[in-house]
Amino acid sequence: MIIHNTSNGSDSSELSILSHVIHTYTHTYLLTYIHVHIHTFTHTSKVDEIVGLQEDMSAKIGVTIYLGMRPENYGYPTDMPQEEKSALQKKLREPMCAADGDLCKMLKMVEDKLAKTGTGYFVGDKPTIADCAFLPVCRQLRSGKMDFIPRDILDKYPKIVEFEAKMMALPAVKSHYA
Q: Residues with Cβ < 8 Å from 159, sequence gap 6 or more?
């Protein structure tokens, strides 16, 4: 701290002013710094949470896909007949798609996250990596390529439907899927 010695003996007054300036600057800087870092941490945490949820959904669905492709990876014979693979996929997928099934529970969590932001995106008012990660899951579920998973499974979740439409309207996304 700098103390200016003046001829009228007002060292304490100048020290007080200087102290106030330093305090104000430090306080403002620290609050700004803390706010930015907390905001960044919060933003990143929310993105990570959605990406993690997307990965959980993909893993849950993925097992049912890979079971049909490589049954030996799951303890079944390599030459497992297609009818048996299909029956096994049905056995796994139908409960997953029931109202109290894992997939529907995860879709409800996604719906709630979108409702909470109120912007049509998962974090903030513009697309993030979380939105980019989740859109392919929507497209996969709507594709009709997975037997025993209804193509309209997302229609019960209006915020997910809104999200899907909003993402697909983005020029870069629209041209990618064109």
A: 111, 114, 115, 120
User: What does pTM read for this prediction?
Assistant: 0.76
Domains of the chain: 46-177 (1.20.1050.10)
For 91-126, how does the pLDDT look when each residue is reduced to its tens digit (9 = 90+)?
999 999 999 999 999 999 999 999 999 999 999 999
Would the CA dihedral through 95, 96, 100, 104 be positive or negative?
Answer: negative
pLDDT digits (tens, 9 = 90+) for 141-164: 999 999 999 999 999 999 999 999
Task: Give residue 114's identity as a one-letter amino acid code.
Answer: L
